[in-house]
Amino acid sequence: MVNPMEKPLFELDKDEFKQEIVHHLRTTLGTSEKKASKQAWWMATCATINQMLFERLTSTQQTHLQKDTRAVHYFSAEFLMGRLTANNLHNLGLYKTCEEALKDLNLELADLCEQEPDMALGNGGLGRLAACFIDSLATLGYPALGYGLHYEHGLFRQEIRDGRQVERPDSWREYGNPWEICRPESVQEIPLYGYVETVFGEDCQVRKVWHPGRIIKGVPWDIPIVGFGAQTVNILRLWESRASNFFDWDVFNHGGYVDSQKEKAEAETISKVLYPNDETEAGKELRLVQQYFFCACSLKDIMRRYKRTHTDFKEFAAQIAVQLNDTHPTIAIPELMRELIDEEGLEWTEAWNICKQVFSYTNHTLLPEALETWPVYLFERVLPRHLEIIYEINAYFLKNEVDAKWPANNEIKRKLSIIDESNPRRVRMANLCVITSHKVNGVAEIHSKLVKEDLFPEFNQLWPDKFCNVTNGVTPRRWLLSCNQELADLFTETVGTEWPLNLDALRELAKYADDPVFQKKFMDIKLHNKEKLVKVIKAETGIDVSADAIFDIQIKRLHEYKRQQLNLLHILVLYRRLLLNPEYDIHPRVFIFGSKAAPGYRVAKDIIYAINKVGERINDDPRIKGKLKVVFMPNYRVSLAEKLIPAADVSEQISTAGYEASGTGNMKLAMNGAITIGTLDGANIEIAEEVGEDNCVIFGLTVEEVKELKARGYSPWDYYYANAEIKSALDWLDTDYFTPGRPGELQSIKKSLLDYGDTYLTLADFASYDEAHQRINSLYRDKARWAKMAIINAASVGKFNSDRSIQDYVRQIWHLDKCDIS
Q: Whole-prediction pTM value?
């Protein structure tokens, strides 16, 4: 037998791979084949994979250091990584080898992958986009680091109790995580609170000295990110907060067992959860501290790396690019200014010019309430030096840019100022991003247009070349090759092996869209995926559904602008039609939801409750003969999405036009052959352009029509009284029909749509949405037509590969060179 350690691990056959797994089971896990649990076998498999990852990681880092490469540093509050076992094996090209090796050991790789908890490092599209981007950066061979927070519990684990969302800690790394490595040699110390002293030097120069009231230790954990083909392995570096001196021995000895660890507990709170509830003053402060902590750690780490090969900061902007993924990392701007001026001794103007070249900003929202602002008094307490720097940036900007363009125009000054002078005074983080960054991008063509025209029109007048578009994308390695292997195999068999790197290669599939043989293969795979999901639904919810029904799926963060309430209203109307006419002509439907609501977002949580309560009544009603089912999948996460997306027939993308920045679930679902029912919003517009409007179902008001309707005065009551079905469905929510003995429990949904003005025009779009669903019903019954539409969707979404997105960033914003790792 060949010793596998004498040859490159990438060339291992299944027998040698098996040897390595058993070797790690015995030596790394300290157990034997006879008593090992599935978790132990999974950990041993991960250890074998890590041998390859760490070797390539070392090669990548050494090459980047030797070549002194320019790199992008992707700052994001979220990295929704999901599970990595299958993804890493596919990117290494060893999935089938590992699968065969484990079969020889009477184990199933798919079963072992289920042992892996999802990394709880994000919430929704923002975090999943970041995960796709760092995958693509490694795949394309660009030097890059992701920077974020090492959340102990992430957002939360969602449980559904009596229909209501209950938040519980997501202890995703309770028993360790085989993919991460602690790097104590790179620990950073981060100041907080305190005061700023003005010092006059012997040369009469004024210096600012920040005397912090507290120091927090930032401990880095690295997760290797392997690109497809495993030539480049970059890292995602996540910061864990710890107290610098976290145990008071004297207090402990005197019986103060809890007080002795008070500082430790307070420090660890910083990286405890994603997006702590900021309804309280303490919550607001924790969020600001959290954002500063991860940005300050990351910038100190960047400067440490830079100083290994440079003695001054003349080349800093040429070597370092920092992408701010939304406004959460904005505090990195004044922090870099502080480091350069206070710690490195640069002049203010020199530091400012560096910052303007280093930073770029991705905007993800047009909602005013989602553009972060912070009370000035909070900055004064937590980050006093940074507030001074922000004041200086603002004064410089208003004098040198705004006054030059609009002399003595105080109204424009008020609008563009970083400081909102209302009561209480607030720091506008988005304005700070736009003023500093050399490029600002939106994430879909319509979104980028609205960023310039509606959100930042005056900034666009000042700097028309600053704004650009980079339409989002998703990685086909995760969202097709890994999660839908049967379909991936069919595509490989049909068009060859290049498509995971060049998704446009799938356009060849369009030739087979009318071929009955190919249609049958394609739809048989869809049916098999639906049959697998039927079992998951039963296991997770106890609900029985049929794979022969239309699987209509809406999976995304719960927010009123995403309009889960529109979907619910339509379900109520369908249910009422079936009760009034049991012979109503409808193909059986299963409406599947997956979503988490922010803990403090009351209406969103009420929508979840309403979906569950309406679903309970519908699912148990024999009168409708199983024609309608409603399923709410608890604890929506990446690993659940990987089961839902391959099984979807219909993709619900129904946000109010002009409110969804892009969406990425729409791309994943179309890639797997789901038909989009959607508004002309976000990336839906570009998906419709790529697949053809005949191959998706578009409805609703356009962006312009939404603006016109709001301008002339929108009254939801007009639609309520004009449409008897809307009125009957909403009035139903006043009764106890869905909540026996508790009338009015679902009233908040009706109130949000009527009494509170229906901000997102649910009722205005209802009739069009209902008609679109009737088209879905007719199309699905024409099996050949539906199969053709599904195939063309899967074949036509090459544009939405995150590799293309990254190439757009590189060309327009980052100006990176690929680095060959020999």
A: 0.95
* Whether 147 contacts 298, CB under 8 Å: yes
* Bridge pairing between strands 214-226 and 233-243: antiparallel
Q: State the pLDDT at residue 248.
A: 53
Closest CA to 187 of 159, 141, 222: 222
683 lies in the same domain as 739: yes
87 vs 479: CA distance, rounded Å: 10
Same domain, 24 and 76: no
Same domain? For 388 and 273 the reply is yes
Question: Which domain range does residue 593 map to?
Answer: 485-799
Band of the pLDDT at 65, cuts 50, 70, 90? very high
- Among candidates 780, 794, 799, which has minimal Cα distance to 512? 794
pLDDT given at position 8:
46
* Domain at 306, CATH number: 3.40.50.2000
Rg for the chain, CA atoms, rounded: 27
Spacing of C-alpha 662 from chain mean position: 12
Does 424 sit behind a cis peptide bond, omega within 30 degrees of 0 on the bond before it? yes
Rounded to whole angstroms, the Cα distance separating 510 from 513 reads 5
Domain co-membership, 79 together with 43: no
Specify whether 492 is located in the same domain as 426: no
Q: What is the dihedral angle through the alpha carbons of 176, 180, 186, 191, rounded to the nearest 10 degrees?
A: -60
Backbone angles phi, psi at 499, to 5 degrees: -60, -30
Percentage of the residues of the chain whose pLDDT score is greater than 90: 91
Catalytic positions, written as ranges? 364, 556-557, 562, 664, 668
Beta-bridged to residue 360, according to DSSP, are 323
> How many Cβ atoms from other residues are within 10 Å of residue 548's Cβ?
11
In which element (H, E) is residue 613 found? helix 602-619
Q: Given this model, what pLDDT does residue 124 score?
A: 84
Cα–Cα distance between 519 and 788 in angstroms, integer?
Answer: 7
Residue 122 lies in a domain: yes
Distance CA 804, CA 470 (A): 9
* Alpha carbons 537 and 529: distance in angstroms, whole number: 12
In a domain, 99, yes or no: no
Q: How many domains does the structure of the chain reveal?
A: 3
pLDDT one-digit tens code per residue, 531-577: 999 999 999 999 999 999 999 999 999 999 999 999 999 999 999 99
525 domain residue, yes or no: yes
Residues 141 and 38 in one domain: no
Phi-psi region of 543 (alpha: psi -120 to 50; beta: other; left: phi over 0): beta
For the beta carbon of residue 535, count every other beta carbon within 10 angstroms: 11
Q: What was the pLDDT predicted at 279?
A: 84
Same domain, 420 and 519: no
Query: Hey, what amino acid is at 724?
Result: A
Tell me whether residue 478 is in a domain. Answer: no
The reply to whether 513 and 467 lie within a common domain is no
